[in-house]
From TrEMBL, chain A:
Protein name, entry field: Molybdopterin cofactor-binding domain-containing protein
Domain Aldehyde oxidase/xanthine dehydrogenase a/b hammerhead: 224-302
InterPro entries for the chain: Ald_Oxase/Xan_DH_a/b, AldOxase/xan_DH_MoCoBD1, AldOxase/xan_DH_MoCoBD2, AldOxase/xan_DH_Mopterin-bd_sf, N-heterocyclic_Hydroxylase, OxRdtase_Mopterin-bd_su_IorB, TAT_signal
SMART domains, per the entry: Ald_Xan_dh_C
TrEMBL record, chain B:
Taxonomic source organism: Modicisalibacter luteus
CDD domains in UniProt: fer2
Name of the protein: (2Fe-2S)-binding protein
The entry's keywords: 2Fe-2S, Iron, Iron-sulfur, Metal-binding, Oxidoreductase
Membrane-spanning ranges: none
InterPro entries: 2Fe-2S-bd, 2Fe-2S-bd_dom_sf, 2Fe-2S_ferredoxin-like_sf, 2Fe-2S_ferredoxin-type, 2Fe2S_fd_BS, Beta-grasp_dom_sf, Diverse_Oxidoreductases
Gene3D superfamilies named in the record: 3.10.20.30, [2Fe-2S]-binding domain
Keyword set includes rRNA processing: no
Domain (2Fe-2S ferredoxin-type): residue spans on this chain: 1-76
Length: 737, 150
C-alpha cells in the first residue's frame, strides 16, 4: 500500500464525508464514492448507469452509517448480497476503523427511494463487475474512522481530557483512568462536532478484521431455511402469478383460449399482455397449472424462421467487414510478410443462459398513488425506472425493497421480469408475486453473446510472436445497455476486454471488433463479462503459439510476461503446486492459463485424464491468486472455487441454440450443470499481497475454459476451439474412488 | 382434504390431491425454507425427508404422502445430526447465495443418518441430485466429511 493511502488530507476528499444528527437521536455518516481507477468496461456501465438515463454519476453514489443511541451500528448497504460475501466484506471495512465488532453491525438493504435517505441513496446503485470491494475500500474505512474520531472526541470533551489519551475499543471509548462510555451514549454529542481535518487510516499490520478469515453475516439464516429470497416473500392478500411469454423474441399475443385454465381450482385471473399471458392464482401450483392449460396463439413475427445456423453464418459473414479498430500498434502486415511460421485459428463461444437457481421473480403492487416492488435486483434504480414506465407513475412514486438474491450471475442486472410483474400487477388491487417457471427462465433469458474470434500470428526464429492479428465478431451488450459508451464504429469496450491489450509482450498488434447482433436473442452480461471471452481466446491462442514454437506453455508465457511480475508470480506458483513438468500417463495432460482479470492476477492449471471414447476426468484443478490484500481470505477462496467450477460447467456442457426462433433448451435436463459428482476439488493458493484489493467474484470463471482446452490438447493432441466440450463429443467420467 | 404430518405437527390442508408437496409447504403452510428450482426433480432445491429419506417435493403429489413422516429444513435444528450439519456448513463457509442450501442440507442429513462415514463415492451418490449453481461443491464435501469424523 502506498503512503498516501494512510492519511487523508485533500480538502476535496474531505467534503465527501458528511456527518449529521438524527431526528430520533443518533449519528449519521454519509460517504461518497470517488471514481474508481481500475474498471472493466462492464463495471463502468453498471456503476454509471445505462442508456444515459441514470440519475447520477459515480461521485454521488453513497453509503450511510447510522449509530443509534443504544450503540447499534447500521450500515445501509448499497451492494446486494448474491453469495459473493460482499456485504460482510464491506461491513468489516467499516467495523475495522470504527472499532466495533463485526457482530455489532446490522445490515440494511439500501432503498432507492426512502425519505430518510434522500440524497446519495436515491442515486444509481448497482452490484456487478467485481467492483464492490474496490470501490468501497477507502470510503468505508474513512467513514468508520470519522465516526471513531468523533466519538472519541465527544468522550474526551465529556471527561475534560485530551482525545489523545482516550482509546476506542469494542464499541466504547475508554479513558486513561478506567472511564468508559459506550458509543450510544456519545452519539448525540458527536453529531455536533465538525468533521475532522485529518482521517488517518490503519496500516495493514494493525488490522484485526480485514484480511482475517471471518464468518459471513448472511449465512446463518441460509442454513435453517429462514432467509427470505424474492420467491419466498409473503404479503397480506398477495397472490401468485406465472406467465407464458411468446417463445419467439419479438412475437406478440394473437389470442388466448382460457376456458380450461379458469376451471383449475385456485386460478383467479388470466391477464393477457402484449407478448405474454399471465395466470394469477391462490398458490403457485394453480398459476402453473393454469398457464399450462392455456391455449395460446402467437404472432411469431419476423424471427419465426431463425435458427442457430443462420445466426452463426451471419457472424462468419460479418468477420470480413471492417468493423471497429480496437488496437493498431506497429505494422502487422509488414511484420507478417515473409514470415515462415504463421498460425491461424478460429475460436467460438456459444450463447449461454444464466440459470440462477432462483428463477426470475418479483413482487409488485400498483396502488393509485404508488407502486411498490419487493425484488432482488442488482440495479435498483433501473428497476424503479422500469416500474415507473409501465405503471405510468413518476419514479419517485416507485418504492423498491431490495431482497437477497438466489444467484444472479448478471441476470438481475436486467429488469425485463420486473416490468412484466408491474404490467400484471397494475390490473389488480392486491400484491402479485410473479415467479417464472424454470422453463420460462431458460427460454426468456438475455444470453451471453455468441462470439467468433479469428487469429493470425507469425513467429520469429526463436518462436516469439512478431505480429498478432485478432478479429472479434459478436453481439454488443453495450450497444443495448449503454449505447453512449460505444466507441467509433460501434467499438464495444466490453467485447474487446483483454483482447485489445493482452498482458503479453506482443509487437505489431492489431485487434478489430465487428458488432453483429443476433436477431432472435437478446444479449447481456454474464458472470465474467468481456474478460471471460477475452481470456478464453487469448489464452487458447497463446498456447497454440507455444506449441508451434515447440516450447513449454509455462516457460513460453513467462518469456512474454517480462514486465508483468505479478502475473509471473501467480503463473510460477500455480505451476509449482501442480507439479508442472512431471510426467503423466498417456491420455493425461496439463493445461494452463494466466491473466489479469478484474484487478486481480490469476493462474489456473487443469490436470485431466481422457479415454479414447471421449471420456474426460479432471483430476486436479489449481488456482494461484494475487487479488491484492485479501479482505476475507475465506471468501476469496470460496469465490475462486465456485467461480472456477461455474465456468467449468459452462465450458463442459452449455450452449443455447435456436430453432424456428425458439430457444431449444428449457430446464436442467437439457441445459445441464455440473454436479458434485462431476466437480473436482479446487485447490486455491493465495499470494500474500498488500496491493489494493482486486475483484474475485468473476476471476476464476474467466480462466478455467482456456486451461481446460489447453489441457485437453496436451492429453490428446487435439485442439478444441469451440465450446462447449460436449459439442466435440466429450463426456465427464465419474471420479476415481 | 389431505392430513399431513410435518415436523411432528399435523396439518389439514384444503388443496387438490395432485398438488405437489412443495407448493403446499411454501404457499399454503408458509414454510418457505424448501425451494423451487426446476419442478422436474433435477435440482434438489425442494428436498425434504419422507420417513427419513431425501425426496424431491416438487414431484410428490400431496395425496400420496398422507400418514408419512415429513420433515423440512425448518426442523433440522431439532435433531443433533441436523444441528451438526448446519454448524459444519457455517464453519466451512459452504454457503454462497444460499438458495440451494436447504436442499443440500436435507440431502446431507439423510446421507449421514444412513451412512455416518461416507467416502467420496457415497457422498457423490447421496448429493448428486442437488445442484448448486454457485458451485459450492468443494466445501459441501469438506463439511460432510467433518461431520462424519466428529
Ligand atoms: S424443484 Fe424439485 S428438484 Fe428442482
Ligand atoms: S449457494 Fe447458490 S445455488 Fe448453491
Amino acid at each position: 500500500m502506498s503512503k498516501d493511502d494512510s492519511k487523508l488530507e485533500s480538502p476535496e476528499r474531505r467534503e465527501l464525508i458528511k456527518v449529521s444528527g438524527l431526528a430520533l437521536g443518533g449519528l449519521l455518516i454519509a460517504t461518497c464514492l470517488p471514481p474508481v481507477i481500475h474498471k472493466s468496461a462492464a463495471t463502468q456501465i453498471v456503476e454509471e448507469g445505462a442508456s444515459g438515463d441514470s440519475p447520477a454519476g459515480p461521485a454521488e453514489l453513497g453509503a450511510f452509517i447510522r449509530i443509534d443511541p443504544t450503540g447499534g451500528v447500521t450500515l445501509i448497504m448499497p451492494k446486494i448480497e448474491m453469495g459473493q460475501g460482499v456485504q460482510s466484506s464491506l461491513a468489516a471495512m467499516l467495523a475495522e476503523e470504527l472499532e466495533v465488532d463485526l457482530s455489532q453491525v446490522t445490515l440494511q438493504e439500501a432503498p432507492p427511494n426512502e425519505e430518510l435517505y434522500v440524497d446519495p441513496i436515491l442515486n444509481f446503485q448497482a452490484t456487478g463487475g467485481s467492483t464492490s470491494a474496490r470501490s468501497f475500500w477507502r470510503p468505508l474505512r474513512e467513514a468508520g474512522a470519522t465516526g471513531r474520531i468523533l466519538l472519541v472526541q465527544a468522550a474526551a470533551d465529556e471527561w475534560g481530557i485530551s482525545s489523545e489519551v482516550c482509546e476506542a475499543r469494542n464499541g466504547a471509548v475508554h479513558g486513561p483512568d478506567g472511564q468508559q462510555l459506550g458509543y450510544g451514549e456519545l452519539v448525540e454529542a458527536a453529531a455536533e462536532l465538525p468533521v475532522p481535518e485529518q482521517i488517518p487510516l490503519k496500516s495493514p499490520d494493525q488490522f484485526r478484521l480485514i484480511g482475517k478469515p471471518l464468518q459471513r453475516l448472511d449465512t446463518p439464516p441460509k442454513v435453517n431455511g429462514s432467509a427470505k429470497f424474492t420467491t419466498d416473500l409473503q404479503l397480506t392478500d398477495m397472490k401468485i402469478a406465472t406467465t407464458r411469454t411468446c417463445p419467439v423474441l419479438g412475437g406478440t399475443l394473437a389470442s388466448v383460449d382460457d376456458r380450461e385454465a379458469r376451471r383449475i381450482p385456485g386460478v383467479r385471473e388470466i391477464i393477457p399482455l402484449k407478448d405474454a399471458v399471465a395466470v394469477i392464482g391462490d398458490h403457485t401450483w394453480a398459476a402453473i397449472q393454469g398457464a399450462r392449460a392455456l391455449k395460446v396463439e402467437w404472432n411469431f413475427g419476423d424471427n419465426a424462421r431463425l435458427s442457430s445456423e443462420q445466426i452463426e453464418q451471419a457472424l462468419r459473414d460479418a468477420a470480413d467487414r471492417d468493423g471497429a479498430l480496437a488496437t493498431d500498434e506497429g505494422d502487422i502486415d509488414a511484420a507478417l510478410d515473409g514470415v515462415d511460421t504463421q498460425i491461424e485459428a478460429e475460436y467460438e463461444m456459444p450463447f449461454l443462459a444464466h440459470a440462477a437457481l432462483e428463477p426470475m421473480s418479483c413482487v409488485a403492487q400498483v396502488r393509485v398513488d404508488a407502486c411498490e416492488l419487493w425484488v432482488g435486483t442488482q440495479v435498483p434504480v433501473m428497476a424503479q425506472q422500469a416500474a415507473a414506465k409501465v405503471s405510468g407513475l413518476p419514479p419517485e412514486k416507485v418504492i423498491v425493497n431490495n431482497q437477497l438474491i438466489g444467484g444472479a450471475f448478471g441476470r438481475r442486472l436486467e429488469v425485463d421480469f420486473i416490468a412484466q410483474a408491474v404490467d400484471i400487477a397494475r390490473n389488480v388491487f392486491y400484491p402479485v408475486k410473479l415467479i417464472w417457471t424454470r422453463e420460462e427462465d431458460t427460454t426468456h433469458d438475455l444470453y451471453r453473446p455468441h462470439y467468433l474470434d479469428r487469429f493470425r500470428a507469425g513467429l520469429d526464429g526463436n518462436g516469439l510472436p512478431v505480429g498478432w492479428s485478432h478479429t472479434i465478431v459478436g453481439g454488443s451488450v453495450m450497444a443495448r445497455f449503454s449505447p453512449q459508451a460505444l466507441g467509433e464504429n460501434g467499438l464495444d469496450p466490453d467485447a474487446i476486454e483483454i483482447s485489445a491489450k493482452p498482458i503479453y509482450h506482443l509487437p505489431n498488434l492489431r485487434v478489430r471488433y465487428v458488432p453483429e447482433d443476433p436477431v432472435a436473442l437478446r444479449v447481456s452480461w454474464w458472470r465474467g463479462v468481456g474478460q471471460l471471452h477475452g481470456a478464453y481466446v487469448v489464452e487458447g491462442f497463446i498456447d497454440e503459439l507455444a506449441i508451434a514454437a515447440e516450447q513449454d506453455p509455462v516457460d513460453y508465457r513467462l518469456r512474454l510476461l517480462q514486465d508483468q511480475p505479478r502475473a509471473q508470480a501467480v503463473l510460477r506458483l500455480a505451476a509449482e503446486k501442480a507439479g508442472w513438468g512431471q510426467t503423466l500417463p498417456d491420455g493425461h495432460g496439463r493445461g494452463v492459463a494466466v491473466h489479469q482479470v478484474f484487478g486481480s492476477y490469476l493462474a489456473t492449471v487443469v490436470e485431466l485424464a481422457t479415454t479414447p471414447q471421449g471420456g474426460l476426468r479432471i483430476n486436479r484443478l489449481i488456482c494461484a491468486v494475487d487479488c491484492g490484500l485479501a479482505l476475507n481470505p475465506t471468501s476469496v477462496r470460496s469465490q475462486i472455487e465456485g467461480g472456477t467450477l461455474f465456468g467449468l460447467s459452462a465450458a463442459l456442457f452449455n450452449e443455447v441454440t435456436v430453432k424456428d426462433g425458439h430457444v431449444q433448451q428449457s430446464n436442467f435436463h437439457d441445459y445441464r450443470q455440473i454436479r458434485i459428482s462431476d466437480a473436482p476439488p479446487v485447490e486455491v493458493h493465495l499470494i500474500d499481497s498488500q496491493e489494493t484489493p482486486g475483484g474475485i467474484g468473476e476471476a476464476g470463471t474467466a480462466l478455467i475454459a482456456p486451461a481446460l482446452v489447453n489441457a485437453l490438447y496436451a492429453a490428446t493432441g487435439k485442439r478444441i476451439r469451440r465450446l462447449p466440450l460436449s459439442r466435440a463429443g466429450y463426456h465427464v467420467l465419474a471420479r476415481e474412488a | 382434504m389431505p392430513t399431513l404430518t410435518i415436523n411432528g405437527d399435523t396439518h389439514q390442508v384444503d388443496v387438490p390431491e395432485d398438488m405437489p408437496l412443495l407448493w403446499v409447504l411454501r404457499d399454503v403452510l408458509g414454510m418457505t425454507g424448501t425451494k423451487y428450482g426446476c419442478g422436474i426433480a433435477q435440482c434438489g432445491a425442494c428436498t425434504v425427508h419422507l420417513d427419513g429419506n431425501a425426496v424431491r417435493s416438487c414431484v410428490l403429489p400431496v395425496g400420496g404422502v398422507e400418514g408419512k413422516r415429513i420433515e423440512t429444513i425448518e426442523a433440522m435444528e431439532n435433531s443433533e445430526l441436523g444441528r451438526s450439519v448446519q454448524s459444519a456448513w457455517l464453519e466451512h463457509e459452504v454457503v454462497q447465495c444460499g438458495y440451494c442450501q436447504s436442499g443440500q442440507i436435507m440431502s446431507a442429513v439423510a446421507l449421514l443418518s444412513k451412512t455416518p462415514q461416507p467416502d467420496d463415492k457415497e457422498i457423490d451418490l447421496g448429493m448428486s441430485g442437488n445442484l448448486c449453481r454457485c458451485c459450492t461443491y468443494t466445501r459441501i464435501r469438506g463439511a460432510i466429511k467433518s461431520v462424519a469424523k466428529a
